[in-house]
Amino acid sequence: MAYATVAGVPPVAGLWAALPALVIYAVLGSSSSLSMGPEATTALMTAIAIGPLASGDPARYAELAATLALLVGVMSVGAWLLRLGFVADLLSRPVLVGYLAGVAVIMIADQLHRVTGVPVTRPDVPGPGRLVRPRPEADAGGPRAA
Length: 146
What we know:
0% strand, 146 residues, globular, 8 helices, mainly alpha
């Protein structure tokens, strides 16, 4: 339920999201020790991907989250049919550990105000668009031929 809150949907959505994943994996899965269901990284990426598109409308947010879940499910089945599981083996251990450590820091920072009661504000971190500046020749009509 906490992951549903992180994703920006009602907590009950977390309960409903877990059941289909477990049933489908029980039927189609190949590993008896794999954990399947909602997780922190998925919740965080869902919030980041659809948050700006929902424009604060909870119904639109839930609709977008459901659509995203269905699209990811279709893509996962497609990857399974194409036997693309080997691609995961190409990711090095340091990359995976770094990714998970970054997600952990973001999750802790996101929940800090709920635990401590202290308001936490996000700094205005510049994105790639703010760091890239146009070249002077682009303003003058493009590069000139010599």
